[in-house]
Each structure stands twice: as C-alpha cells, then as structure tokens.
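Reading a protein record of the kind used here takes little practice once its layout is understood. The reader may check this reading against the record printed directly beneath this paragraph.
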Amino acid sequence: MTDNREFHGEIAGLLLAAGGGRRLGGRPKALLTHRGRPLVEHAVGVLRAAGCGRVHVVLGAAADEVRARAALDGCVLVDNPDWAEGMGSSLRAGLASLAGTGARAALACLVDQPGIGPAAAARVLAAYRDERSLVSAAYDGVRGHPVLFGAAHWAGIAETATGDRGARAYLRAHLAEIRLVECADVAEPYDIDTEADLSHLE
C-alpha cells in the first residue's frame, strides 16, 4: 500500500455519520454493530489506516448516544442539527468544520459502507495532487465513494449540496476534472440501508 504519511497534514478524513436509519426502523447507522463495535468506529479506522491524520465526524441522529458508546478519541466531532434534511446538510457542516484547519483536501466517506476499506481509501488519497484535486473511487467504471474534494471546491460544493444529493450536482458539473480511481478489486460499495442489508455486517 502506498505510504501516505506525507499527506497527513494536508488531507483530512471527513466521515458522514448523521443518518437516522429511517428504513432500518429508526436505528442510527453510526451505532449499528460491525465486528463487535459501532459502525462509526470502523469507518474512522478506515480513514486513519488510509493515511488521514485528522478525522472529522459529522453526527446527527442520536449524537449524544454515539458520543457515549463509540470510542472516537482524537476525532473532531461535528454536530449537524439539520441532519434530517439529508446528506447535503452533513456535507456542508463537515466542510465548514475544516475551514481554518490547514487541510487542503477532504477524503469523504459514508458510515454505512463497511465494504469499503483502507485499500480503496488509500488509493483515492494517493491520487491527491493539490487543493484543486477532485478524485473519486470507481467500481467497474461507476463513480462511488470515497471521494476526495480539494479545498478549492469546498465553497462550490457547499452551495449545491442539498437534500440527499450530497456533492452529486457539483461533481456532475465538473466531470472533466474528476480523476477516477478503480477500486472494484479491493472494495464493495454496498450501503446498509434496509433490514436485508444488515446481512453484510459482521
């Protein structure tokens, strides 16, 4: 795996973990158990193993319970009071929390994709060049997560991130600038959205 230590100060991990698990009967995704621990802990570990020294975690549903039950030492915990509006509000809150940190890019992951591990995240991180970088994992050529947003794009993403679309509108408008990094050989991009999806958890 590529040694990414030189990027620690430039690339922050951004974990979106605010969802309420509406289709899971209202069970917050951050607190689903995976390998004996809350899913949010697993996702933080992925970002750290990939080479992110700073990790910001956006919390929303059951934020107090997540703080109490998950070991998130060393993370910057960002409260999103508007989490019910969708992923866009969490992305805006997360990017805003990175202002002034010195980070030149954010490596964004979703808490409900445990099939995406450090190998895929590290590949995306390794494609970083500067604050104008836009990098996305791809699975058999289809864009997915994680996504790296250079700081030059943060304001534009925040302007267009609404509802559950996240950065999709911004990325669609900047397709020519996105560097795709194929990850299908090292990760599976499934989401934990429904009761049936819980079978993916270990």
Confidence is low (pLDDT under 50) at residues 1-7. The helical segments are 39-50, 63-69, 87-98, 118-126, 154-160, 168-173. The first strand starts at residue 11 and ends at 17. The longest helix spans residues 39-50.
